[in-house]
Amino acid sequence: MLTDQRASNRIAIIDVGSNSVRLVIFDGMTRAPMPIFNEKVMCGLGRDPENTGRLNPEGVELAVVAMHRFAKLLRAMKVTHVDVLATAAVRAASDGKEFCDRVASETGLTVKVIDGLEEARLSALGIISGDPMASGIMGDIGGGSLELVLLDQGEIKKRVSLPLGAMRLHTVFGSDRARLTAEINQHLDTVDWLAEGKGQQLYAVGGSWRSIAKLFIAQENYPISVVHNLAMPQSEMAELTHIISQQSRVSLEKIGGVSKRRIDSLPHASLVMNMLMTRMQPKEVVFSGHGLREGWMYEVLPEDLRQRDPVLEACFSFAEDGERFHQHGEEVAQWCAPIFSELPVNIERLRLAACIIGDIGWNEHPDYRAEQSYNRILRHPYIDLNHHDRVFLAYTIGSRYTGNFKGDEASDRILSDEDRLTGRLFGHVIRLGHTLSGGVEGILPQTQLLLEEGKLILQFEKQASALYGEVVEQRLSKLAKLMNRESVVRLAE
Predict the structure, then answer these.
(1) Top EC class per UniProt (predicted)?
(2) Looking at the structure, do residues 472 and 357 belong to the same domain, yes or no?
């Protein structure tokens, strides 16, 4: 019965793009939906070397085979809410309707072809779903088109769709840089609002642009392999995209880290980004794993769910799936709040997140709890944090499980000394809270953690005094030492 209930909540989207056809099945309609299945087939529907204006015949056959497989899997998984969205390749092809009709007749799946402006809007909503106050310009480069959206504090202000997809540029212009540059300039010249994003973020969406980030990670031995929310200064990106735009396929293959099917069009995608940055002058480029699919999910959410914090919601889900007493995290957060007053908004958010997932390593071997918990958070694909905050949260939970957690190259490279001290403080107070309560709800409210005149005080209600013990004393003392305070235990009057 439980299995049927869970299956009925599943939601699926099939994204039919110029390069690939992808099925993603989400676990339900939540603020932080978790993909439980994600499969991509590189079909190349938009690859049209003869400039016929039709879909690539080989790609059509590959796509239809993929859709048959997806339809069968969806039936087996009992997913009834399915949307199939087709973008640039299908909408531009003279035989696009014929393809949609064939898919419907052979698989029972109804394909909805969305126009460029709608694609732009949905991709922008994908960015907003992870960053509700996003400001700057979102660029989503696919195989056939480039969508650009001006964002202001989470609101969509302007949008456009341009025929500057990486596959199209490679197919039509090859390595003719002069013609390629002229084509890009011609279309970017029509967008008179790009300079409005100056000094803000360029949100880079799409597999071709994410491949640029993968090249950077491989080339620089960057310590975090998760591309989502990798942020790079505009100056570094300008240099990198300029270099990539001039490379041959052979040179790019030697670097590694990029799908062979994307290598041919990667220089074209890099040139588009480089020329876009020249006009926009962003502060930094933020690579995003969110896009059309996440935007589609975000739009169908009820308004009350949209208002929730995506990071905290993801942590609640994480805790519910993996902790012994998952409700206890909120109680820990409230209990220790008095000693962490006036924190910056983002650090307070990370403190809450750490408290919520403060028990995720309970079932690991004691010798490896810190390391395993750190690595799980550092590489978790669905926590919507930038890389600094991701490492900080991982370091905090590592510190929760051992008093002298060292971290690794990522924490050494990304966190400041002040960050590490704050992470240790948060980790030690979560450790104290779990030790004191045994992870059980209802115990911490019988105690108080207070700061008074250079002292860290743990105060017990009379009926809770038996909770005090040697291990509690040790952990209170370590926390007080980190705070340069004296530890004191007392009974409430």
Answers:
(1) hydrolase
(2) yes
Q: Which residues contact 469 (CB under 8 A, 6 or more apart)?
A: none
Question: In whole angstroms, how far apart are CA 415 and each of 196, 326, 379, 384?
Answer: 32, 28, 16, 18
Whether the Cβ atoms of residue 32 and residue 317 lie closer than 8 Å to each other: yes
pLDDT at 192: 96
For the chain, what is the largest distance between any 2 Cα atoms, rounded to a whole number of angstroms? 86
The CA-CA-CA angle for residues 444, 447, 451, to 5°, reads 115
Q: Please tell me the total count of domains within the chain.
A: 3
| Tokens representing residue 361 in the block | 């390593």
Q: How far is CA 375 from CA 163, 213, 378, in A?
A: 41, 21, 5
Residue 147's pLDDT band (cuts 50, 70, 90):
very high
Same domain for 133 and 70?
A: no
If asked whether residues 104 and 9 sit together in one domain, one would say yes
Answer whether 263's CB lies under 8 Å from 207's CB.
Answer: no
| Residue from 364, 434, 350, 430 nearest 394 by CA | 350
Tell me, yes or no, whether 209 and 62 share the same domain: no
pLDDT digits (tens, 9 = 90+) for 85-142: 999 999 999 999 999 999 999 999 999 999 999 999 999 999 999 999 999 999 999 9
Pair of tokens at residue 85: 């969205």
- Phi/psi of residue 230, nearest 5 degrees: -70, 125
Angle at 205 between CA 266 and CA 95, to 5 degrees: 75
Same domain, 382 and 256: no
205 forms bridges with which residues in the sheet? 140
Please give, one letter per residue, the 3-state secondary structure of 256-277: CCCCHHHHCCHHHHHHHHHHHH
- What phi and psi, each to the nearest 5 degrees, are found at residue 70? -60, -40
- The answer to whether position 34 is within a domain reads yes
